[in-house]
Amino acid sequence: MSTSTAEAHFQRTAPGLRVLRWPALNGHGVDAFVTTRDGGVSTGRYASLNLGLHVGDDDAAVLANRAKVADALGAELDNFVFCEQAHRRNVAVVTDEHRGRGARSAADAIPATDALVTAVPGVILVVMVADCVPLVLHDPVAGVLACVHAGWGGTVRGVTPAAVTAMRQLGSEPRDIVACVGPAIHPDRYQVGADVVDAARAAFGDQLDTVVRPDGTGRWTFDLWRANTLQLVAAGVPAGQVHVTALGTGPDSPFFSHRAGGPCGRFAAVARLREKDQPREKDQP
């Protein structure tokens, strides 16, 4: 299993955004990155690249931020697909008909869904986070892509293996999947109660101690990175093709964190299968 943060790197895009990219994904028929706080127009607790329309920020600012992300890809916002994330294991298979869902209004996002899977080039998948872990899964052989949102709820319910199953239904083989596990709340900061431990025990069995650990205060810490890695490998993804970016969210991090201070913006994992002759996303010279 690969866990080196050196396997992902920050880069500036042409619109001035600072994004995190995975060399394991980019250049293999897919464009994918994770946004940061930097480069947007939102202010206050949402400063500055908040991509969430559902968190209390000014809608016009959020749409301007989303337009910047679209520009970084040389794409139109109407090609983006968002989902109403609900901490479940529901997966949506995205087709051309879904283009634009949730892009300009949270009201028409794909409902109650935490993973998006597609085999359609040019459709841009988005999951938003602010402590939960985003994952991008790509099968370069079958040409299948997934974006997953996993907090503890989605993790113990199995949203990540459910996404792998949906990819298989589109012709993917787990042995061909490259999985990139993005920034999330550090396990040392992710305290949970006995109810979560019980749910994790049911999900992870004798591997529980590698996912949940007592913190000495009567509570436990939960490792989203480790938990989702275990699930990917159990689903058939080779351990050497799982790339964990162990960068934590928080007040001194480039990534928004709800636990660090309450209501805040959302960063996102953004990914698309590149169409034939489609230019790659734009970097600053």
From TrEMBL:
GO terms for molecular function: copper ion binding; hydrolase activity; S-methyl-5-thioadenosine phosphorylase activity. It catalyses: S-methyl-5'-thioadenosine + phosphate = 5-(methylsulfanyl)-alpha-D-ribose 1-phosphate + adenine; inosine + phosphate = alpha-D-ribose 1-phosphate + hypoxanthine; adenosine + phosphate = alpha-D-ribose 1-phosphate + adenine; adenosine + H2O + H(+) = inosine + NH4(+). Belongs to the purine nucleoside phosphorylase YfiH/LACC1 family. The keyword Repressor does not apply. The keyword Magnesium does not apply. It comes from the Bacteria. Purine nucleoside enzyme that catalyzes the phosphorolysis of adenosine and inosine nucleosides, yielding D-ribose 1-phosphate and the respective free bases, adenine and hypoxanthine. Also catalyzes the phosphorolysis of S-methyl-5'-thioadenosine into adenine and S-methyl-5-thio-alpha-D-ribose 1-phosphate. Also has adenosine deaminase activity. This is Purine nucleoside phosphorylase. Keywords: Copper, Hydrolase, Metal-binding, Transferase, Zinc.
